[in-house]
Amino acid sequence: MSRVGKVPVRILQGVKVEVKDGVVKVEGPKGKLSYRLPLGVDVMVKDGSILVTRDEAKAENAAALHGMTRTMIQNMVHGAHVGFTRELDIVGVGFKAATKGSTLTLMVGYSHPIEYEMPTGITAKVENNTHIVLSGADKMQVGMVAAKVRSFREPEPYQGKGIRYTNEHIIRKQGKAAAGAKTSA
């Protein structure tokens, strides 16, 4: 039995959960989310909590999907109630970001600005022209959008310029001049 999978998920205040035809639907103040249950995993809602069970007779990999399904449902309940955020920092001279409606505009050292249209359910907020806060109800979608924005100019190891996650540590390399200065003496 999965240790993660057997822990019940508590339904938070203001969140509605419905299980119908193998689909879990969660609705809360931050949005609506749904998840199709994999074969061999069942969900029951009772006494203000969600219990995930598995039936290994239906599928061989039900044990592997048990804990993952419970975590997905937990993330849906949390996301519908509170939401998820991911923060990015832009480092570099002249690098900046701005938002207009649902479009994030990045000036990150190319000859043209990069305009990225935010997917439905994700909002971007720019603080001080160099700090981007992405938020939404779906944890996986927020992470994927953050990774996409970061991919427009990944941090480089010599000067550290680029778009990085807040609190991400970039391992810096020495340049040629610094390496040559050590050997000649």
How are the SSEs placed, and which strands pair?
Blueprint (H helix, E strand, L loop, with lengths): L8 E2 L5 E5 L2 E6 L2 E6 L4 E6 L2 E6 L7 H20 L2 E8 L4 E5 L2 E5 L6 E4 L4 E6 L3 E6 L2 H13 L10 E4 L10 H8 L2
Tags for this model:
alpha+beta, Outer Surface Protein A, domain 3, elongated, 185 residues, 2 domains, 3 helices, three-stranded antiparallel sheet
Task: Briefly summarize what is shown.
The protein is 22% helix and 37% strand. The protein is of the alpha+beta class.
Run of helices and strands: EEEEEEHEEEEEEHEH
What is the CATH level 1 assignment of the largest domain?
Alpha Beta
Largest sheet composition: 4 strands, antiparallel
Structural class: alpha+beta
- Count of the domains: 2
Description of the molecule:
- The structure is a single chain.
- This protein has 185 residues and is α+β, with helices and mostly antiparallel strands.
- The protein folds into two domains: 9-81, Outer Surface Protein A, domain 3; 84-165, Outer Surface Protein A, domain 3, CATH 3.90.930.12.
- 22% of the residues lie in helices and 37% in strands.
- It contains three helices and 13 strands; from the N terminus they run ββββββαββββββαβα.
- The protein has helices at 62-81, 139-151, 176-183, and strands at 9-10, 16-20, 23-28, 31-36, 41-46, 49-54, 84-91, 96-100, 103-107, 114-117, 122-127, 131-136, 162-165.
- Strands 11-12-7-13 form a four-stranded antiparallel β-sheet, with helices on one face. The chain has a three-stranded antiparallel β-sheet with strand order 1-6-5. It has a three-stranded antiparallel β-sheet with strand order 2-3-4, covered by helices on one side.
- The model has no long low-confidence stretch (mean pLDDT 90).
